[in-house]
Amino acid sequence: MTLTKTTCPYCGVGCGVLAGADGTLKGDPDHPANFGRLCSKGTALGETIDLDGRLLHPVVDGKRADWDSTLSLVADKFSAAIAEHGPDSVAFYVSGQLLTEDYYVANKLMKGYFGSANIDTNSRLCMASSVVGHKRAFGTDTVPGTYQDLEQADVIVLVGSNLAWCHPVLHQRIAAAKEARPDMRVINIDPRKTATSDLADTHLRIAPDGDVALFNGLLSHIAATDAVDQDYVDAHVNGFDAAIAAARDTNVADTGLTDIELQDFYALWAGTEKVMTLYSQGVNQSASGSDKVNAILNCHLATGRIGKVGAGPFSLTGQPNAMGGREVGGLANMLANHLEIENADHRDAVQSFWESPTICTQAGLKAVDLFDACASGKIKALWVMSTNPAVSMPNADAVADAIKAVPFVVVSDIMERTDTGDLADVLLPAAGWGEKDGTVTNSERRISRQRSFLPMPGETRADWKIICDVAAKMGFGDAFAFETPADVFAEYVALSADVSGFDRDLDLSVFADADYANLIPTQWPANDRRFFADGKFYHADGKAKMLPITAPTLSKTDFRLNTGRNRDQWHTMTRTGKTARLGAHLAEPYLELHPEDANAKDVTDGDLVTVSNDFGQAVLRVLVTDRVAVGQPFAPMHWTKQRSRNGTVNATLAPVTDPFSGQPALKGGDVAVAKFDAAWFGFVACANAMEPTADYAALARTQTGWQMEMAGQTLPDDWAEFTIMLTGLADADVALVTDPASGTTRIAISQDGVVHALGFFGKSPIALSRNTAINAIGTTDAPLSALSGRPAADRPDPGVTVCACLNVGRNTLLNAIAGGAATVPALGDCTGAGTNCGSCKPELAALIASATIPMAAE
Ligand SMILES: Nc1nc2c(c(=O)[nH]1)N[C@H]1C(S)=C(S)[C@@H](COP(=O)(O)OP(=O)(O)OC[C@H]3O[C@@H](n4cnc5c(=O)[nH]c(N)nc54)[C@H](O)[C@@H]3O)O[C@H]1N2
Ligand SMILES: Nc1nc2c(c(=O)[nH]1)N[C@H]1C(S)=C(S)[C@@H](COP(=O)(O)OP(=O)(O)OC[C@H]3O[C@@H](n4cnc5c(=O)[nH]c(N)nc54)[C@H](O)[C@@H]3O)O[C@H]1N2
Ligand code: SF4
Ligand SMILES: [Mo]
Q1: Is 584's pLDDT higher than 90?
Q2: C-alpha to C-alpha distance for 147 and 177, rounded to whole angstroms
Q3: Which is the CATH superfamily of the domain at 801-851?
Q4: Each residue of 467-484: pLDDT tens digit?
Q5: Residue 566 CA: which ligand 1 atom is closest?
């Protein structure tokens, strides 16, 4: 089997993958991002490339349609809206998961041919505050360092980053470097204790949004000690005095940290030349996100610790092509190639290179404003590509209503059903990862190829091709006559050369004669090149700027809802949700709640709570844990209406944004938490999928089909009928056992002696070995013994999955720990856990330490 060299479609680490059409998948040992490593999501990619649930042909008004008439319809609707209401009456909402070639043509069509800048992207929810921070400090949007710096640093500070779960291969690289150089220090700054905190030497439980105060305090400490690099500052930095004055005005008590914690951290940071500050969504997704970024950059500029080996700030990008999207100008306030919409010379240069009829003259609508404009009727035609805003935007229910309010909505996706696709007039079938070709740029400015190793299924087309086909129907065929993604890439590189007269960082000349087919992963402007150590910046006078930053006034709320990610799921789960292995890690939408809060709300593990406010509500399973602080519950962002009735937490997040970047404050919802009084709880394992219709319902894949956790406020009349309706299995044999004393009912549905579904219902959360029920599906076990829900003596229950790669469950691990496996390597030796991708190592360590880890239903 020949394996194709390609790049993982998930996070911004951008790992190289060797993939085969039969689902073979391994890390590419030659790729400089991962040198052969993969995380649990990357390892399971082979299980997500089946055609289950794929959108394989165009759909118009819910009915299958042909490409030609669908493209004409889309072109006519966009042309008519522009003709009648002007170019700003249409919008594209795109994604950091598009490839650079897709992004380039979408941007060219909107900005150069429609003449509007109403193209914004989910990167607005992700990287916009970092972009503002970089531009304000450096005059350009550049990540100065490289991944190697992480291995060469003496101190790594992770701010608002759960690296162990979200950029696992970088986490593994740091862990390996730390093992080789035990003096290396890792500090994690997060209001919540995470798997990343478990690896760190120090976890600083900062108050939510206390980051500006923390880094202003650090700057003030730097100024008070001899850590300032005065020569560097004098020669290359403006704004030093004002920034220091503002920093001195800051009340560091706002950090919520003790004096000792602060002084230790400040002394370590200021006293270490090779210090890297890595940051992610705990920084960006905040009403003070841009200021947090500049407060961090100020410290690096004041000490001249930037762009040097092992020293510098490092913005971790989330999506595989978040960086590429920024380079091609995918945000509403940028032009291609790091050029500025507001700069007339830049606009003229791009327009003349494109030979386009027009060019946008002002910034377009940013994501939150864009959906507001949809709601208010200003947007007449909307095209959403490769993102699921009905789930991932703040105020998600209102965003869904806004999409419904647009007269004509097109969604390009790989899946037939998504919460956003369900609102569209037209669905366009996109080719997915493994089927399409193009390039992505990772967090360290490295451009790698995604290569196809599978045929495009059904009538799917690559996103860049779909956009070009629509452009052609609108009469712009000549400008979009690309035949391959290589043609698009070549034009993008040529544009970079054409505008090289402007003083910019982005320089793609290393790709000028690139052999696209055989392109090896390469950084711009050149491999291993760092920025800014030489003091060359991109403000008009060539200097950097330190900004005077004022810490925000922190609002007090009873419950500040923190949100983020799980180790084994990717965003709205359209791909990672396909594999049982990944679904088994945390199978339900949950709320981590501090024990004191749980007490106050009279709830315990396994109960359900409603999280609500004026914007909306979500019903979530409670996990009581002191890993979160009092009043700061945490919920994952992943659950959708496809998978859960009421699990979308973004329904409760206010559309509050950072004033400079427009990035929503997705880490801080003001919510009420109340016990959800369920009349019944249930668990069903079934060979086929079910509709998540109960008041609380969470659907997940299992190795034998599907499972659903459920609860409701009204009791069904008849459990047998309810289960038959749910599982769609009429004409089957039904066995039923009730236990009036405990009020539980157990139901088995079988056909020809084969167990198809097992249902367990009761008045309290169902205590049952899920694995045993799941493993009975498809067997000829006697229904009544399957119904016991207890593991047979010869088939012990492995428990909830901890190691997704080797399918090792919690019970197996606890047995091994009881048997004497007292270290992570020892657990690996006895059970295999943690020996493949290593993403679960922090959880193994936590399990050893406490013999308990928070888990959903067990
Ligand atoms: N498994 C997995 N990995 C992913 C993704 C995924 O969906 N699943 N998505 C990718 C994408 S697009 C992105 S953007 C990245 C995100 O990667 P991360 O930013 O690392 O992940 P998050 O879980 O969103 O948030 C990080 C942490 O910010 C903390 N936080 C909340 N408020 C504050 C605060 O005020 N200050 C500080 N200092 N911290 C705070 C949260 O407690 C959380 O632990 O992950 C990428 N990788
Ligand atoms: N509460 C809360 N909300 C958040 C965040 C948070 O931390 N907390 N994080 C925010 C961040 S950082 C991000 S990046 C967003 C992510 O949120 P989204 O971008 O909305 O989430 P995804 O599930 O990644 O959506 C990608 C969609 O593209 C489809 N797709 C996959 N491949 C292709 C392809 O090749 N072509 C096309 N056309 N479609 C494809 C998938 O099926 C899926 O429907 O969520 C944001 N929302
Ligand atoms: S760390 Fe994991 S998700 Fe991120 S690119 Fe690498 S394999 Fe993919
Ligand atoms: Mo993101």
Answers
A1: no
A2: 12
A3: BFD-like [2Fe-2S]-binding domain (1.10.10.1100)
A4: 999 999 999 999 999 999
A5: 1
Ligand 1 geometric centre to CA of 316 (Å):
10
The per-residue pLDDT for 198 is 86
Q: Give pLDDT, residue 855.
A: 38
Beta bridge partners of 723: none
Give the integer Cα–Cα distance in Å for 735 and 784: 7
Return the structure tokens found at 116: 């509007």
804 lines ligand 3 (CB under 6 A): no
Q: Which of 306-310, 356-360, 853-857 has the lowest mean pLDDT?
A: 853-857
Q: Which of 45-49, 503-507, 656-660, 823-827 is the most confident on average?
A: 656-660
The distance from CA 125 to its chain's CA centroid, rounded to whole angstroms, is 10
Residues in the ligand 2 pocket, defined by CB under 6 Å = 95-97, 122, 125-126, 281, 285, 318-319, 385-389, 391-392, 412-415, 418, 430, 432, 463, 563-564, 571-572, 574, 637, 649-650, 653, 666
Q: Which residue has the tokens 């841009």?
A: 290
Q: Is 41 in the pocket of ligand 3 (CB under 6 A)?
A: yes
DSSP assignment string, 110-125: IIIII----EEEGGGG
pLDDT for position 730: 80
What is residue 470's DSSP assignment? H
Q: Compute the distance between CA of residue 409 and CA of residue 305 in angstroms, rounded to an integer.
A: 48
Looking at 3.40.50.300, 1.10.1040.10, 3.40.50.740, 3.20.20.300, the CATH number of the domain 59-126+322-482 comes to 3.40.50.740
φ and ψ at residue 348, rounded to 5 degrees: -60, -40
Residue 1 has pLDDT above 90, yes or no: no
Substitution site in 98, 127, 388 for ligand 2 pocket (most atoms within 8 Å of beta carbon) = 388
Cα–Cα distance for residue pair 831/827, rounded to 1 Å: 6
In this structure, the dihedral spanned by the alpha carbons of residues 387, 388, 389 and 393, taken in order and rounded to 10 degrees, is: -100
Atom of ligand 2 nearest to the CA of 565: 7
For 747-812, the DSSP string reads EEEEETTEEEEEEEEESSPPPS-HHHHHHHTTS---HHHHHT----TTS----SEEETTTTEEHHH
